[in-house]
User: Fold these one by one.
Assistant:
Number 1:
Amino acid sequence: MVDVVVAGGGIIGLTSAVRLLEAGHRVTVLSAHPPEQTVSAVAAAVWYPTHFEADDRLLLWGQQALLELARQASEGVPGVTMRHSRMLLRGATDTPWWAQGVPGFRLEAAPSPEFTGEWRFTVPAVQTRSYLYWLIEQVETLGGSVVRRTLANLGEAGGDVVVNATGLASRELVPDPAVHPIRGRIVVLSNPGITVSCRDEDDPEGGIYVHPRSRDVVAGGTFEPGQNDLSPDESVTGSILRRCTAMVPELARARVLRSVAGLRPGREGGPRLERAQLPDGRPVVHTYGHGGAGITLSWGCADEVVTLV
Ligand SMILES: Cc1cc2nc3c(=O)[nH]c(=O)nc-3n(C[C@H](O)[C@H](O)[C@H](O)COP(=O)(O)OP(=O)(O)OC[C@H]3O[C@@H](n4cnc5c(N)ncnc54)[C@H](O)[C@@H]3O)c2cc1C
């Protein structure tokens, strides 16, 4: 058993903490922000390896996370549901690299002449804000603790081993210049009864999606590398609502609850999940840079964090 300090209380830090506690370690999570102020709380958040190229590690982590979230959905974990999904295609219809192990994956005929076909599949959708609180409860029930604290550097974290799950802040804390913000804007609406997720990644005005969750619907969304201004932009909200309603007409009956923006922790070369050393010689396990797929990869990465610790 080792004393582990997890820096970061978003989806990556909290799922790592749960797995480390289950493996018998002593765990303290340090988070600069309350759950609702993390990027994780903004996430749409459906299982989908957004903007990642084929990669064996991502495939494995994604498959493990999908299995775990599907299990949680079947056990009634709050905010986790399985959703039938449609992906409208405008180009090649070949089976994508991530389809292996995705329940119900198949190609169907195009719904109208502007499309070439559509993929259907079933994946988890997570009401992230409440899920983060559920994860904190799991950490505490398993004997760990979650403490509000901002680290000036990773060496300030105590413990025999530090797990660095600070997302975008890893750019300065590691430091890692490959880390960069990818702004996402979404609109959260009341759910008028939509049960199927729908995406059009190649919409000529930019990718769009409509994801019903357990309590609301997320309509999105932008994917803007290098942008970090989070001030509201009504023209983007209007464009998202117009195009998403054209794709899923039931959305016209929904009430807009809020427009939100967040900065995904992007990283050139993909997520970093490896063991290294702090300047004082202690081991650090880095797990950051999950871009637009932190929920999609979460539990798979958490399993590997335990192996590396
Ligand atoms: C609009 C939008 C839609 C998205 N949709 C999806 C989706 O559908 N599916 C999906 O899989 N992903 C989605 N994502 C991506 C997902 O949100 C991220 O990949 C994920 O939240 C990253 O989690 P994280 O724990 O690494 O980072 P964060 O949630 O940012 O957590 C970082 C943690 O580190 C802490 N921290 C930072 N600095 C310090 C410090 N100095 N000291 C102590 N603690 C510190 C913070 O307080 C926080 O607790 C979306 C993101 C956005 C913005």
Note: The chain has one domain: 3-308.
Number 2:
Amino acid sequence: MKKLRNLTLATTLFASIFASPAYAAAPTKPEKGKLSVYFLDVGQGDATYIKTPNGDDILIDGGNNKYGDTVVDDLKKLGVDDIEIMISTHPDADHVGGMDTILSAFKVEAVYAPKVSHTTQTFKDFLTAVKNEKLTIKEAKAGVTLPLKGITATFVGPTKEYAKSDLNDWSAVLRVVNGKNSFLFTGDAEQKSEADMISSKATLKSDVLKVGHHGSDTSSSTAFIKAVAPKYAVISVGAKNSYGHPTATTLNTLKTANATVYRTDKSGTITFVSDGTKITVKTEK
Ligand SMILES: [Zn+2]
């Protein structure tokens, strides 16, 4: 009996010392009839996978070049066999880099991107991969609605054309509504685009916000965060990145707005599940 008690004590002690799991838990598979949103941990970059209640698969961005295989593995583990809609928010490498690998790994039905080009090899690789899939790119811009059943998914940005040097402001911004729950995915849209979205009078208010540009203070103006009024804010960011993302300013703006902040550098992949009425959150670590 004493031995057993000691063993129990030892187990309790062990569990208390290893406060966080020794191995990261794999994200749970999407639940049928619900909307699942996975902010995949791709270091300094973005990759978001959405499973709609109707069973359609959406991917927004694919991380940088070296994360293409990681995203493919993650999607396979989550049961993805084809991708109905792929969205490239803008041509920067930390968003579009992994897309060519993903395009060659899965059957992709449709690709959406803003009508802006880039001269990098990474962006050319993406265009070549789209061409190899015998697809053309559909324009992502404010007012375009994705042909999906069971949810409403509409682009609220970009609302206009920007200078080629302002690639971030070209970011395709998607708002997804499932019953009473809403999500806003902003890519790297900065304050100029945020102001234009506010002026456009489109509904921006959302329960969950993918914070623009990895928490940089060139995005997330006080006015924009006020307009979105998120309950949850997700920052997709690499640990110890050289950009200083997220900035104290952005974290303060979100705190003042009473948003609960999740970061992929701290929590790994972050999963939101919406049943149309309530939202639950799970983190990998
Ligand atoms: Zn970025």
Note: Residues 14 and 206 are 41 Å apart (CA to CA).
